[in-house]
Amino acid sequence: MRVYSLLIFDWDGTVMDSTDRIVSSIQSAAQDLDLLALQDHEAREIIGLGLRAAIQQLYPGINDALIEPLKERYSYYYLEADRTPTSLFPGAKKTLESLHEKGFRLAVATGKSRRGLDRVLAETGLGWLFEVTACADETASKPKPDMLMDIFQRTGVEPEQAVMIGDTEFDLEMAVRAGVDRMAVSYGAHHIERLRKYQPILEIHNFHELEAWLDDNAGENK
Which Pfam families match (predicted)? Predict the structure, then answer.
């Protein structure tokens, strides 16, 4: 059994229940620019990607001149105008704090922008828990492995000493490409059936299950 020293978390749909606001914000942004209306399931498909990559997937062949305005409108809605509630998933804060106390090193690899992640880490008060964070506007978007490789370079951790925890195919495919073990979250944007093809070592249905599994299988890393 591998002993994991570094736990890498996706954010939206894994640590924070923000899926509905993402969907609503991208729909509002598209409406402002008179783009084809998006159904909820279409908007959910891109959660986890960097914003530019998400837009290009939603609107194949979109004029480059529209991408930046759409990004700006999305950010406006998500950060300021949209009032769709977001909150940490039940047990997330307590579990993350406990894992940190037990000596696990924690990181974030997210499709959010640096501005968006820094803001939410400040709002939740969780920023101090994460040794390193990587955002989609700083490197190639998931599912390319660049984000994880950047984390390994900055922490000195080898891929076999880390595990990626995420709720989308983009998270788990990124981990596969980087040679990293994977844990699949069942309560996020993509249905668990879609994640099983990436052979996760654990399916997480409640956040606290992660700590229980690590206690049983990996022990404390102090």
Answer: HAD_2
